[in-house]
UniProtKB/TrEMBL annotation:
<keyword id="KW-0223">Dioxygenase</keyword>
<dbReference type="InterPro" id="IPR046451">
    <property type="entry name" value="HgmA_C"/>
</dbReference>
<dbReference type="Pfam" id="PF20510">
    <property type="entry name" value="HgmA_N"/>
</dbReference>
<dbReference type="InterPro" id="IPR014710">
    <property type="entry name" value="RmlC-like_jellyroll"/>
</dbReference>
<comment type="pathway">
    <text>Amino-acid degradation; L-phenylalanine degradation; acetoacetate and fumarate from L-phenylalanine: step 4/6.</text>
</comment>
<feature type="domain" description="Homogentisate 1,2-dioxygenase C-terminal">
    <location>
        <begin position="300"/>
        <end position="438"/>
    </location>
</feature>
<feature type="binding site">
    <location>
        <position position="375"/>
    </location>
    <ligand>
        <name>homogentisate</name>
    </ligand>
</feature>
<keyword id="KW-0560">Oxidoreductase</keyword>
<dbReference type="GO" id="GO:0046872">
    <property type="term" value="F:metal ion binding"/>
</dbReference>
<dbReference type="InterPro" id="IPR005708">
    <property type="entry name" value="Homogentis_dOase"/>
</dbReference>
<keyword id="KW-0585">Phenylalanine catabolism</keyword>
<dbReference type="GO" id="GO:0004411">
    <property type="term" value="F:homogentisate 1,2-dioxygenase activity"/>
</dbReference>
<feature type="active site" description="Proton acceptor">
    <location>
        <position position="311"/>
    </location>
</feature>
<protein>
    <recommendedName>
        <fullName>homogentisate 1,2-dioxygenase</fullName>
        <ecNumber>1.13.11.5</ecNumber>
    </recommendedName>
</protein>
<feature type="binding site">
    <location>
        <position position="375"/>
    </location>
    <ligand>
        <name>Fe cation</name>
    </ligand>
</feature>
<keyword id="KW-0828">Tyrosine catabolism</keyword>
<comment type="similarity">
    <text>Belongs to the homogentisate dioxygenase family.</text>
</comment>
Amino acid sequence: MSKEPLQIYGATAQQSFSTAPRGEQDPYQYQVGFGNNPGVLPVGQNMPQKNKYDLYTEGMTGASFVAPRAENLNAWLYRIRPSVAHQGFSKLPENPDLESNFLPLNPKVHVSPTQLAWHPFHLPGDNEEVDFVDGIKTIAGNGDPTLHEGLAVHMYLANSSMGRKAFCNADGDMLILPQQGRLDIQTEFGKLMVRPGELAVIQRGMKFKVKLPDGPSRGYIQEIFGSHYTLPELGPLGGHGLANPRDFESPLASFELDQAHWDIVYKVCGELHSCSQEHTPFDVVAWHGNYVPYKYDMAKFVFVGSISKDHIDPSIFCVLTANERWDVGDGTFRPPYYHRNSSTEFIGMIYGEYGGRSDGFKPGGASYENGFCPHGVSYEKFQSATECELKPERIHKNTLVFMFESSMSFTITDWAMKKSGQLHKHNPAMWDNLKGHFLNHLEEVEETLKRAGLPGLSSLGLSEKLA
Ligand SMILES: [Fe+2]
């Protein structure tokens, strides 16, 4: 028996503040803030001898017990049955497209110094039903969850809602970016409706299921094994800017009474295991804590950029980049400079168009650049950027592109290299026109060297060029 879920506030109703439902596209209410402490059920303690309505207390931590206060994460759940009420685990068949070990010792992953890119990944066909969990395809990553170090980049390519099935990832936090179709995510903490342009974070160990209200759906997932997402420091920016804490939304407690058969799929060290239970896992009547799932609308991001000269590193768009910005720098080369950074870059697009690339970069596709792999704009783009008039202009209008950036190199999976069918290698010919124009100035250089009393170019064996 499944009843319309009830939404209730903690008994003391100590809400920070909540948002009103936004109509059909997003019918849920949220409480706002990053890592705040919303409504509380028991007063003055977490585990009274007996809870109101005979609920069970279940605690959950997201950090070691003795982690510094600022990093200490935990939640208290007051639920109809505790999570331990299940019927034991059994190992599920391997999903060959799901990868967790990115160490080069693993023969199923590949190293690529070459820039790679993928056309939009295909959604499953009408002849198969693929839900969010079964539709996860790993592209790249580094480290391994058993080392508590590294990350994985996945796509989800799904066409059906999860039924009486929930997913619990014990390996890492999942940052989910829908690109096509909303995700109706039911978590133990309540519900999140996440549309393209928003991001959601479901942290390690939290049970959730995903329904697809808009049919076939595609999006990006970044899974991090060793830590949790935090907001970047603001340094000289002061007290606010970039992503403001008040714009992060967490669910209100929401429970069901369903007492039917449920399967809970756990991902542990990259393996899938399942347990079953005769009741819904979504039976949390109230909760409080700061270890909670949340979502964020990237259009709320407050941009910071150079207003005088020179391109600033993309870290100013952390967390996360949003849909348009102004280029106003004077006397400067506005596109990204040619670079070889220690960062490994994985880029995807939610919507819009992205100029300056020759490789058909489209929403639902991706590109990859390993650390220290040199890259930058084509000669045509270079030439126009060095000669154009520098009027203030709005760029990337109605476009949302994101970058997963890591100081660790990624390896690329078999699925991404071979099975997806969407890989196209970057054509290095796009830089063939980047001629050494310096060579047209040799006479001038020779003059300058002479004037400075320095040896001329003939000392470099270039006299024939000067003839
Ligand atoms: Fe780059």
